[in-house]
Amino acid sequence: MSRRALAWVRSRPGISSTIIGARRMDQLDANLAALDVTLSADQIASLDALTQPTLNFPADLLRNLSLNLAHAGATVNGEPSARLASLLPASADEVY
Questions:
Q1: What's this model's pTM, rounded to 2 decimal places?
Q2: Domain ranges of the chain
Q3: What is the DSSP secondary-structure string of 39-54?
Q4: What digits encode the pLDDT tens for the residues 22-58?
Q5: What is the enclosing helix (H) or strand (E) of 9?
Q6: Beta bridge partners of 76
Q7: Would the N or C end of the chain have less CB density within 10 A of its end CB?
Q8: Under 8 Å CB-to-CB from 71, ≥6 apart: which residues?
Q9: What spatial distance separates the first Cα and last Cα of the chain, rounded to whole Å?
Q10: What is the spatial distance between Cα 5 and Cα 15, in angstroms, rounded to a whole number?
Q11: Cβ-based neighbours of 2, under 8 Å, separated by 6 or more
């Protein structure tokens, strides 16, 4: 299990190193064996889904609000956003 877990951690974007906590030689050997493990895209996607945290209110609200405020109706990296009509002008003519 530790091999797959460490291989998954190494597959994450932005991760340049992993911290292991081996106390015994057999644990160190198992952790180092993770360097030889390559996970498939399906395995990574499955582990991503299993480790996705469930956040309480207002996490979804804040994510959607900040996305929509920042992008104002534009699609960025494949993520569409909505223009918040009550907060943003429809055109440059509406700017005071």
A1: 0.57
A2: 2-51, 59-94
A3: --HHHHHHHHHHH---
A4: 899 999 999 999 999 999 999 999 999 999 888 888 8
A5: helix 2-11
A6: 79
A7: C
A8: 79, 81
A9: 60
A10: 14
A11: 27, 30, 31, 34
